[in-house]
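Appendix B. One record, verbatim.
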Amino acid sequence: MSVTDTGKTEALDPSRGPVPDGSFQSPVPDDPTRTPVPDDGPMAQERPVRRLHVKAQPAAAPRTSEHLPGDPRGGEPSTGGTKSGVKLAKISRTGDRAFFGVSTASSAFIVGLVLFVGIFLLALALPSLLDNQANFLSSREWTVSGSELRFGIAGLLWTTVLSSVVAMAIAVPIAVGVALFITQYAPRRIAGPFAFMVDLLAAVPSIIFGLWGIAVLGPKLVPISDWLGEHLGFIPIFAPGIRSPGTVFVVSVVLAIMILPIVTAISRDVFTQTPRDHMEAALSLGATRWETIRTAVLPYGRSGVISASMLGLGRALGETVAVMIILSKPADNSGFAPSLFAGGETFASKIANNAQEFDTPSKTGAYIASGLVLFIVTFAVNALARIIADRGHAKS
């Protein structure tokens, strides 16, 4: 834009090119609102011509950066030029693949180990089972000496199941009561040490329980056995038996003490996870502490208590040393005694008491066959506990 000698502002054509000093003329059109300068007067001829010069600006480079989503500058990503902006680091999956491989291998190892134990027991027991001359499931006879094999597991199965079930009947109510006391009633300064003392029972060796049961607990339970036999003797399970500490009843009490920390620990953890909203809703409706436990805590923890009981049952079924020390072995030709106050043998104690007789494959196979039955029963009990626990989690 320039001011001519007439004083008017006129637009300069950019096609004229640069003026002699190297600048470009700005293409500004005439402003009709501006008052023109008169061309007459004494100063008209002396007014110098002014020219407005604008220095050339470099052309703006095309936008080549790729904009992230939400970029207020907008625009389409450019396909040419040098890319700029945020550059994401490359994520490595090596650690994930390694951890997945280790965890998968560990799971496969455990499954393979269980299958190996089952196949090993079956392979060693099958020849003796094929040569057995008695009914393996219903016979109580056990003769493995000589060339003829006659053995059955009826007596072993009855003693094992009876002692374990009675132990569960004693331990589960006490364990649930202890868990409720720790989680719902006891102050925090008392609940912690009390729970720690209960958990310590799991660290006591089995041989200590066996020695304590036969030397201390057994003699003190003899009067109770006599009283139950006198008043409830008409029931076969409470029929009078031997006056000795080595009865199934004493074994059941010792097993109940041994599985108490397992059931208590799992039940305590389940009760602690009861949703607080459920308990507050019951209290807001006017429920007492016991009503809150009965309507909110126990229904939520039912599956956990059942699974804990099943795990404790599996522990009782497989106990060996304590049962072997306490339980009195009946005579070979004695009749079947279903009473709690009689002696007997479990699967575990039978194998442990006769381990020195594993001198021939046939004898070894007979005892391993009984061990195979114990393996199957324990495996089934633990599998049932897992199914019940998973079903309870799915419902919650």
